[in-house]
């Protein structure tokens, strides 16, 4: 490892969220040019020594960079910054969602996208769009009534809103993420009492039906309010989970 490599990696400090923090630090150094195309990364052992994190954390951070196309590995030689390290497309992969703080960032992104999409859907939806949304809503209701997470059904309902914008880029954007946009691994339904699960399902149904009703009735402002309310309440729920986990 060269002196320059040491200088770059000596700037890494142990982040609060080790896995995503290390990946974010490396990505920032690649994007800024501190780590240049074709440059070899320090060994796993060197990164461990500099950052104080475990080998598992280092490997998972490097796996995230490989999945994003930012680094490549060469047998027996190690990891190198890709010759074209600029991501060709944005994506969210499972390793990105290892903390509630990351989930909250995804919800923030969704709010920006879906707030506008809901308004457009209210103005542009067709009878076919409404039929599709109703089918997705019925499937979500059924999944929740049966005590399931309803993640795939939830994703399908929200995607049907994007389709109703008549702008294919909205749907294609969601397709990039898949149902990771609805991170069921953090829902903690298994920790709820029967009464809590019932209240959760009722809230989900109520919020989704409000979104659908506003779009169905062509109420642009109401549709935007309904989607913002829904995603804001989801974010509040995750914040409560985060605070409970840090205080325990």
TrEMBL record:
GO terms for molecular function: DNA binding. The keyword Transcription applies. SUPFAM superfamilies: GntR ligand-binding domain-like (SSF48008), Winged helix' DNA-binding domain (SSF46785). Pfam families: FCD, GntR. The keyword Transcription applies. Keywords: DNA-binding, Plasmid, Transcription, Transcription regulation. InterPro entries: GntR_C, TF_FadR/GntR_C, Tscrpt_reg_HTH_GntR, WH-like_DNA-bd_sf, WH_DNA-bd_sf. Residues 16-84 form the HTH gntR-type domain. It comes from the Bacteria. SMART domains: FCD, HTH_GNTR. This is GntR domain protein. It comes from Rhizobium leguminosarum bv. trifolii (strain WSM2304). The lineage of its organism: Bacteria, Pseudomonadati, Pseudomonadota, Alphaproteobacteria, Hyphomicrobiales.
């Amino acid at each position: 490892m060269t002196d320059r490599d040491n200088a770059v990696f000596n700037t890494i400090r142990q982040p609060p969220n080790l896995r995503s923090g290390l990946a974010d630090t490396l990505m920032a150094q690649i994007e800024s040019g501190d780590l240049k195309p074709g440059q070899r990364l320090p060994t796993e052992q060197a990164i461990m020594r500099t950052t104080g994190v475990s080998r598992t954390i280092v490997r998972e951070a490097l796996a995230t960079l490989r999945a994003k196309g930012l680094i490549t590995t060469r047998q027996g030689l190690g990891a190198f910054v890709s010759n074209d390290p600029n991501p060709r497309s944005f994506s969210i992969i499972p390793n990105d969602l290892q903390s509630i703080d990351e989930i909250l960032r995804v919800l923030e992104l969704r709010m920006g996208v879906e707030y506008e999409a809901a308004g457009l859907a209210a103005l542009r939806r067709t009878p076919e769009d409404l039929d599709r949304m109703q089918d997705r809503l019925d499937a979500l209701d059924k999944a929740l009534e049966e005590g399931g997470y309803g993640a795939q059904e939830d994703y399908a309902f929200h995607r049907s809103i994007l389709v109703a914008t008549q702008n294919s880029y909205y749907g294609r954007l969601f397709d990039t993420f898949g149902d990771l946009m609805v991170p069921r691994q953090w829902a903690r339904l298994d920790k709820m009492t029967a009464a809590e699960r019932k209240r959760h399902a009722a809230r989900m149904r109520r919020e989704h039906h409000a979104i659908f009703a506003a779009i169905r009735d062509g109420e642009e402002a109401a549709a935007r309010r309904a989607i913002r309310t829904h995603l804001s309440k989801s974010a509040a729920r995750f914040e409560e989970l985060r605070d409970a986990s840090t205080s325990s």
